[in-house]
Amino acid sequence: MRFFTPTRRLILIGGVAAVAANWGHLPKALRPGAYPFRLGVASGDPLTTGFIIWTRLAPRPEEQRGGMPSEPVAVDWEVASDDAFRTVVARGRATAFPELAHSVHVDVQGLQPGGHYWYRFASMGEQSETGKAQTLPDPRSHVARVRFAALGCQHYETGYYTALRHAAEEELDFIYHFGDYIYEYDVGIGMEVFRQPAALIRRYRGGAPSTLEDYRQRYAQTKESLSLQKAHASTTWFCTYDDHEVQNNWVSDHDQGGSPPDMFLLRRNAALQAWYEHMPVRDMPPIVSGRPPDCRRHAQWGGLLNAHFLNTRLYRSDQPCGDGPKPLCPETRAPALQVLGKTQEEWLADGLKASPCTWDLIAQQIMVAPVNFLSDDGDARYNMDSWAAYETARNRLFDMIEARPSGNAMIVTGDMHENWACDLIHKERVIASEIVSTSITSDGDGSVMQVGRDKVMKANPFVKWTNSRRGYVVSEVTPDAWVSHYRVMDAVTTRNMPAYTAASWGVGVGERGLRRI
């Protein structure tokens, strides 16, 4: 099968002629004219010699199985070193199996370190759009700059994905998605903003998901967004999951709704199977491997940046003191409490201790800074679903950061639906800083600052700045400094709003503590 740039319609030649001859005998969904790439394309998990490229065949995403029959389908792919595909450097054929929702995860290998590549797929007589991907540079190479975005928390019903379209235009080396790609709430159940339901501007199809097919429907509807597709096609992603891919505030094998443990595990495994099927990740599918995807990653950009992508859901102890905002109870200091789990802690400690880079990025899902959010009466309130409720685990994390041989550590986080710039204090000194990115849409339009956040900042002097608009954070990393730009929009319930930089915060190499740029 040959690919052509001017049109996505394919001309079939050579060995594929037999497929053309059989079109009249194929189910309607497999005949030419049923465009199968309506969920877009994506790349992720880069190495120095390759990356994963992804697509899912779904000519009718609103239907069960995406309008596909229960049979395998061939998918051709190719990778080129130019966007016109004059120099194709890799090509092959994959199989989209119905057991994996007709998704394909191609592990492209044999590429050059630090290379820019373009990729596309062909199947069912149609050609996909083109995506762009990058391999990691040689770890011994000099890298002058890395530019990436952190984004996530994209509740479909509470806003348009305009921020993702803006992110696609940022010319990034990679995008880190910190989770909450979908929301598991029932249709019409909005988030709360200042104790009022957020405005709902569109609706999920179907009810609250509990089965594999339910979760597949949520992903299919989410990925129909052209803004999301543009962001995926613009650069390589590192994807992790947080709680709403399964259920609000779940951890390990604990849910928050009182389900019997075996029933919750059925739901969790179905949800994470659907997550795998729709993400450009290197993990084995849970339905094959028998275990949930881990999504831990190390990635290095020369001697400049060493990134550690964590999983703060799968191995965590149940929230102490009960879930929700509460004063800290004695259980938060229990030595056995885990956020990462022993194996992942050791993995991170080894990675930080051996890091040869100027900067270490710790990319993870839940806020590390122990912010006292205060009640209306001024009483202490901490987020039990954050590192604030796991004091001993947080101290172990800080000890790992202190054990690094040199350079600076930065933590990048999501989950809070607000922008935050915080310093992290351990043993009465700043050891690192935390950049918290707001949501893409969750909680609706937001505001410049949530009510009462001025009091929160006074009660927490390590908090340098906060903002409650929607958007994402772009970080620029150089040998001299780390600067994070908080890119926001004034509304997500209105289409096509412009993005602007609300603030930029950074730190110089060898310095401790954020300063406004």
TrEMBL record:
Coiled coil: none annotated. Residues 39-135 form the Phospholipase D N-terminal domain. Residues 148-484 form the PhoD-like phosphatase metallophosphatase domain. InterPro entries: Metallo-depent_PP-like, PhoD-like_MPP, PhoD-like_sf, PhoD_N, Phospholipid_Metab_Enz. Gene3D superfamilies: PhoD-like phosphatase, Purple acid phosphatase-like, N-terminal. This is Alkaline phosphatase. It comes from Sphingobium yanoikuyae. The lineage of its organism: Bacteria, Pseudomonadati, Pseudomonadota, Alphaproteobacteria, Sphingomonadales.
